[in-house]
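seq:
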Amino acid sequence: MILNVRGNTCVAMKQGTDDLAALEEAFGLPQKFIDGLINEDDWSLIIKSHALLESACSGMLCHYFGKYELIDIFAHLDMSNKKYGKIAFISALKLLSKAERRFISELSELRNMLVHNASNVTFSLENYFSNATKEKQERYHSALNLRLKKISTKTEVIEGVNLLIKEPKSVIWSSLTQCLSSIYIQDIFSIKRNELISDALKKIKSARPIEIKKEDIPLTVGSKSFASLTRDGIKPAP
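struct:
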């Protein structure tokens, strides 16, 4: 999911990073798509939210490297593998906060649990979290709730772990929108940075030819010098 641009200008956010209509426009989504996720059944909320984040994260990595031909490669990477998945790149590059990365990983666990069995279409988040041990409820709440503090109704105020037990869809949807907002900000930053780098390189090239002197070439590859590489039987290309 490459950020929608008009010419060289990114679609502007209209009312801050939480404006859903602007996020939908920026990510090329149908109107009310994000807004409507909270009204989906539990199975659809998890599957669609995860798919949306997977696509947005692939796009974010392409924007970061400025290489949009990599989109298919990033799209096929596992989402939550911490050694070689998308989340590994995002963590190493510090593109999202630790809490946001943890949310994505926990959402991936839920998605993987649901996606391989058709009978899970009747899955209930409330039942799932209600039946978990107290320790697991605390862990789930810590991972999945990024910013929802409380929900007030006419009869009660729901807060803490009870938010996840009684209003799990609201918790997950709220955290999803925060992650999408953070991804959008990273996309904008990367696009602008790449534009500045491109402009700077054009100015340098137009000013005078670029000369690479012998002393500018590094004498080491990683922790080994060219001398040791040659001694070990590995010769640099001519």
